[in-house]
Amino acid sequence: MPELAKPSRWAQTRAPAAVILIRLMVGLVFFEEGIQKFLFPAVQGAGRFARIGIPAPVATAYFVGAVEIVCGALIVIGLFTRLAAIPLLIDISVAIASTKVPICSATDTGAFTCRNSAATVRGRCSRRRAPISRCCSACCSC
Questions:
Q1: SS3 11
Q2: DSSP 3-state helix, strand, coil percentages of the chain (rounded to 5)?
Q3: What count of Cα atoms within 13 Å lies in the side-chain half-sphere of residue 54?
Q4: How much is the pLDDT for 110?
Q5: What is the reported pLDDT for 11?
Q6: How far apart are CA 44 and CA 47, in angstroms?
Q7: How far is it, in rounded angstroms, from Cα 142 to Cα 139?
Q8: For residue 53, what pLDDT is reported?
Q9: Is residue 48 exposed (0-12), middle (13-18) or buried (19+ Cβ within 10 Å)?
Q10: How far out from the chain centre does Cα 27 lie?
Q11: Among 6, 11, 20, 92, fewest CB within 10 Å belongs to which?
């Protein structure tokens, strides 16, 4: 029987247990976030993308959600993990650039803008008590 056809060959790995645990955690986070983009479009999907200024928010949210579900599942089950990591690296890089950088710099970054949100109370961010200019409605940091 060829090496690849043996069932035990598919289940074996030479990776340390810590690598498997990290792969499961990362894959599940992306998988769950992708599902949330479809289940809660106003909060996690197109609505959020529209608030942070992503072009074509509906199409982009569905595309990003599908990529996160497919690539997250591939990482969890251990198939094509290196190839699946590439779109997820792009995904997380855009997420950081569009949501976290404006909060840290207190300015707009490129095509992405920070706008006032319902999370502000009396001109202050409800959690951090930061001025509105440092709040970004698309982020969970306010």
A1: helix
A2: 60, 5, 35
A3: 25
A4: 52
A5: 57
A6: 7
A7: 7
A8: 87
A9: buried
A10: 11
A11: 11
- Alpha helices by DSSP H, listed for 40-129, are 46-51, 57-77, 81-95, 101-105
Amino acid symbol at 74:
L
Structure tokens at 27: 């894959």
State how far the Cα of 20 lies from the Cα of 22, in Å rounded to an integer.
5
Per-residue pLDDT of the chain (142 residues; tens, 9 = 90+): 555 556 566 556 677 888 889 999 999 999 999 999 999 999 989 999 998 888 999 999 999 999 999 999 999 998 999 999 999 999 999 989 888 877 776 655 555 455 544 444 344 444 444 444 444 444 444 4
Among residues 21, 124, 13, which one has the least CA distance to residue 79?
Answer: 13
120/132 Cα distance (integer angstroms): 7
Instruction: Report the alpha-carbon distance of residue 131 to residue 118 in Å, rounded.
Output: 14
* Side chain identity at residue 1, one-letter code: M
With b for 16 or more beta-carbon neighbours within 10 A and e for fewer, the 51-86 pattern comes to bbbbeebeebbbebbebbbebbbbbbebeebeebbe
> Locate tokens 């990003």: which residue?
64
